[in-house]
Amino acid sequence: MADWQSALRSDPLPWLLEQDNPAVRHLALRLLLDEPEDDPTVRRARSRAMKVHPIGSILDAQEAEGYWTKPGGGYGPKYRGTVWSVIFLDQMGADPRDRRVRRGVEYVLEHSIARSGGFGATGSPTAAPPNSTVYHCLNGNLLRAVIGFGFLDDPRTRGAIEWEARSITGEGFEHYHRWGTSGPGFSCAINGTLPCGWGANKAVRGLARIPSRRRTALVRRAVDSGSEFLLSVDPSTAAYPTDTKISGNWFKLGFPLGYVGDVLETLEALADVGRAKDPRLGTSIEWLLSLQDDRGRWRNGYAYNGKTWGEVEHQGARSKWVTLRACAFLKRAAA
After folding, report:
1. What is the chain's Cα-based Rg?
2. How many domains, the chain?
3. Prediction pTM value
4. How far is 283 from 214, CA to CA, in rounded Å?
5. How does the average pLDDT of the chain come out, rounded?
6. How far apart are CA 14 and CA 56, in angstroms?
7. pLDDT band at residue 132, thresholds of 50, 70 and 90?
8. Domain membership of residue 173 as a residue range
9. Is 240 within 8 Å of 197 (Cβ atoms)?
10. Could you write out the three-class secondary structure of 276-322?
């Protein structure tokens, strides 16, 4: 513990463990203090988090059938539709045993799988199954969520895993789409058919949720390919291929995380697959540490204000969520 904390300008743990944000408190207990999930303090924090904002606000907005806002594929509206609600609930540490969470995941699995096997980016209530426009960002985010919520063994989840791994390596893959994932190695039409760093982050994090002992040889090859792509440039520069200039959003650490990625997410993705101590991350770690204030806290530079089910945090304000993300990564890098 002391190793990663020694790099901070002050100790943010007491702040993260305050009672006012039980969702952050729950995850800080788990990720930073290594408390077991069945510890009474952890259980109380999670139970409280399920009742109050932001988790409670998302769950309160759910329709009885399991969807949010409108029936169908759930991509729209951003960022209140069904797929986003499930993604954000996972990022906030919602209880996978909660019947509303499980109903939401079941709805996504029933309505959002495209013909190609991945999660389709469609908001159409009439598309059943959705069209074949599948992107690494959405598929990776949803894989991470549905696996985290305990649906790894669902055949539909296994199909989305297969889509993800084969679309990365190109092995036996026949579903590249001119308006979506347009080729192997994270090629994406939205990025001018060039490999997309944001998509790679999400894809690697999604596959990383599969326990290592349960990853097939194909998944391992896809994870290795994704990791090497993310390490092919200094992550702190975000100099991944692009048909325009590098997006400034890379350098705005935020929460929650939609399809937009940031430099810290690249570090998190690499940590998820055991690469947090790679020497090529040294400059990126220095960059991350430079963003903390004199109290060892980070600000939220991409807060989705006005777009989610209530404000999670204020844009530009000191952020418990971003500070939690940064500290959790630094702890893994120092382990």
Report:
1. 19
2. 1
3. 0.95
4. 33
5. 94
6. 24
7. low
8. 2-334
9. yes
10. CCCHHHHHHHHHHHHCCCCCCCEECCECCCCCCCCCCCCCCCEEHHH
